[in-house]
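Format notes (please read before filing issues)

Several people have asked whether sequences and structure tokens are stored in separate files. They are not. Every record keeps both together, in the order shown below: the sequence lines, then the token lines. Line labels are part of the format and must not be stripped during preprocessing.
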Amino acid sequence: MENANAEATEKKVLVLSDNETLAQVIEFSLRNGLKTIQVRSLVMSVPQERQDHDADNAPDLIVVAMSSPSNEPVVALARASLGSYIGRVPILIISDKCFQADLAVQIAHLDFPFVIGMLNDKVNDILYHDILAGSGIVSEVEARMA
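Then the structure lines:
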């Protein structure tokens, strides 16, 4: 019975990155830091088969990790055909660009470079404590600006 509960609460995370190594680090960290999670990565620089993203297979969270200052997270989402998830699926953007998190459309921010523990804590809060839906999440940039 315990296994059935674990499967019922298993969350799906999609990692989208401009850097294969960064995507692998995030995927490894999340798999080891959070036990009831499936992680799949898409790397913008690696050719991928185009996939249809249906509601039944929708991720519970999309992590967009940009290591290059010239790459825009929204453009990455569009190129990966994930733009339709904006506002429907929480998105955690890891970037060195300053921007304001937008709770209304479920977008959170984590500064790049980041600490693995902070990544796991933020993902855990988003997935299991639903803090984007009711709020309380404040990006590190917003906290410094306050």
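For reference, the curators noted about this record: The chain is about 35% helix and 20% strand. Strands lie at 11-17, 37-43, 61-65, 91-95, 107-111.
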